[in-house]
Backbone:
């Protein structure tokens, strides 16, 4: 099973700053099968990025994804108040899906 | 618009079973695979398995093999997830999630169903 490790666990930033979230895989992941989700308290996750770098429908362009192989990054530019949440990366491989443990982006 | 509406919260005793439903609307039910994901209190997301609503084929995470059964009813566009031999560690919010048709990602999610296992 491919293990995804996200860092940092918590990121404390102010509105307007840029958040850089990391997702590292224990084995190489196809970029086509790497996604990012946002989850707010009491809500279901929301798809942000698929295929490592493609924004899902309705996602603002301040969200961007990059990376390949075992290292992937989610960047949130110009943080808005509604962006403070928990973010998960997800991968598909060998008929299995796994999630990272999440990164919490909190207001500093 | 696409909607996934799940059944309500459940309280079960250890050793019992629970069956959660997820009713889909707003799209052709049989064209998109459905997944189940759970989240224990204060924890991350855990993939449980997938069902193909067209043929009914399933694939489960190894952790749940033998305890989970996913089924569907095409006449009502509903998928079901049944988890047996419940233990306290199964207390979690259970989500159904539709797989995006072109890429491997979950584009629509149900609202979640809290299952509490307590004696």
Residues:
């Amino acid at each position: 099973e491919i293990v995804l490790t996200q860092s940092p666990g918590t990121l404390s930033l102010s509105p307007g700053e840029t958040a850089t979230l990391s997702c590292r895989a224990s084995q190489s992941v196809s970029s086509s099968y790497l996604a990012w989700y946002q989850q707010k308290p009491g809500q279901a996750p929301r798809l942000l990025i698929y295929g490592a770098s493609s924004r899902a429908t309705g996602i603002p362009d301040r969200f961007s994804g990059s990376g390949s192989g075992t290292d992937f990054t989610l960047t949130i530019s110009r943080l808005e108040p509604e962006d403070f949440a928990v973010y998960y990366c997800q991968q598909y491989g060998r008929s299995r899906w796994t999630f990272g443990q999440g990164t919490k982006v909190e207001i500093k | 618009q696409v909607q996934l509406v799940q059944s309500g919260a459940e309280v079960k005793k250890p050793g019992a079973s629970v069956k959660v439903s997820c009713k889909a609307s707003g799209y052709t039910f049989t064209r998109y695979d459905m997944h189940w994901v759970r989240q224990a209190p204060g924890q991350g997301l855990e993939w449980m398995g997938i069902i193909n609503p067209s043929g009914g084929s399933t694939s489960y995470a190894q952790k749940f093999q033998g305890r989970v059964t996913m089924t569907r009813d095409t006449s009502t566009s509903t998928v079901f997830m049944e988890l047996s031999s419940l233990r306290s560690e199964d207390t979690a919010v259970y989500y159904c999630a539709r797989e995006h048709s072109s890429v491997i990602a979950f584009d629509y999610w149900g609202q979640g169903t809290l299952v509490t296992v307590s004696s």
Q: What stands out?
A: The beta strands of chain A are 4-7, 10-13, 19-29, 34-39, 46-50, 54-55, 63-76, 86-93, 96-99, 103-107. The interface with chain B takes residues 1, 32-33, 35, 37, 39, 44-47, 50-51, 54, 56-57, 88, 90, 92, 95-102 of chain A (CB under 8 Å). Chain A has a mean pLDDT of 96.
